[in-house]
Amino acid sequence: MPRAFAESGGLPEQIDMRLYSRASLIVVCYAGLLLATDLILPLRIPEILQALAARHFSWGGMIGWIAQTPDSAPLSYFAQLPFLLVWHHGRLAARFPALVFAVAACIVLLKLFKDVPIRRPEFAIAAFMLLPVHYRSATEARAFEQALFFTVLEILLFLRLIRAPSITRSVLYGAALTACLYTEPYSFLPAIGQLVFLLRFVNLVHARQVIWFTLPATIAPPLLFMPYYFWAHPQASTNWISRSGPPPALPSLAYVLLALLVIGFFAGLWTTFRSANRSVPKRMFLFCIAGGVLSAVSADQLLWTAPGLILLSFAALEWLSRSRRTRIAGSGLAALLILCCVPIDARYLTTQTEDVQAQAATVSRELTASSCIVFLSEGLSKDLFIFFQPQLASYECLNFFHHRVMLAIHPYVGVSYRKDADSYFRGLGFHETRRFSESDGEVVILEQGK
After folding, report:
1. Residue 426 is part of which domain span?
2. In this model, does residue 7 exceed pLDDT 80?
């Protein structure tokens, strides 16, 4: 069996390569799961809003759309563009980059597990893949999974920078952090905690060398991002569509999962103080990863904590595996962590309620020559529907002299806004003849006269 040598002290650690082959097979199965999910779930409103950047493509129009999207960055739009130009409103076309980056993130994380090393990579990669916050991002046509790939990549590069600091590794680390910022700015947060927690080892000569190479690589990316931010931020739309009301309640099993991850985090952090059980670079690395987790959690950005939480939890389980009895207990805890994820992911698959595509098809089917359409809440609501049915744009109500008016109400329109619309059209002499409920949205048909 090959060995991973801990640099700057420590004994070589055994790696069972058969387990990594098994973990690679799990990644292949995961790609199949993501593909099936992408084909089953309809595009949700935030995904549609991102995909709209490629509609009627022009560079100026696309850049302008990105700029008006709140807290946006451009790289994920460019990754989607080739696929959406071929298949304008296809689910798989919009989500394919997220699928590719999800698989790539798993591959890079396996490499990271091998370099640390983690002795049970098949459990660790399965837990990472099925974490609900990660599984959701991997099946969304948004920037999150691409940014998570760069987050995992920067963690791997950070480990290599710790083990052997050099200008080349520092530049690569900085480049990964810059890609994080230009994909999803919040994905940069773990790097801040990593740098701050690195100062714990400042009394070590090796650590001081690492700090001098890490510091410019961490400071430069925000400076490179500032020109884009100061250009785009003033253009952000104040009428961007977003879900109103409180977030949905978490299932009770989510609290069990959260408790296991918190325990794993503190157990992994505790092992970094056990100098007899860790080489210096490994203790330094895991302690800095804990800092990255804390800096992301403090900003309520849970997705970027996922790689760090898995690394620390399974580092702690590895410490538990010193004897046969504790090894069984560690495997049981790892299995429990994975089993907690499965029902939550299944609930996510079966409770999705947004389906603007179905609403647009209903509106198109019910159109008559005397009809016009009101896209309720105005603003970008019209764009959501014509993304799937472009011909609806020519039926928008410019006045209310039509005999028949159709209200297209997407799922994010609030209850009060819907009631106001009903009252307004009753005042104009319209009465409701039919109402179609599509997920959380509605299509309402109103006619004048009796």
Report:
1. 356-448
2. no
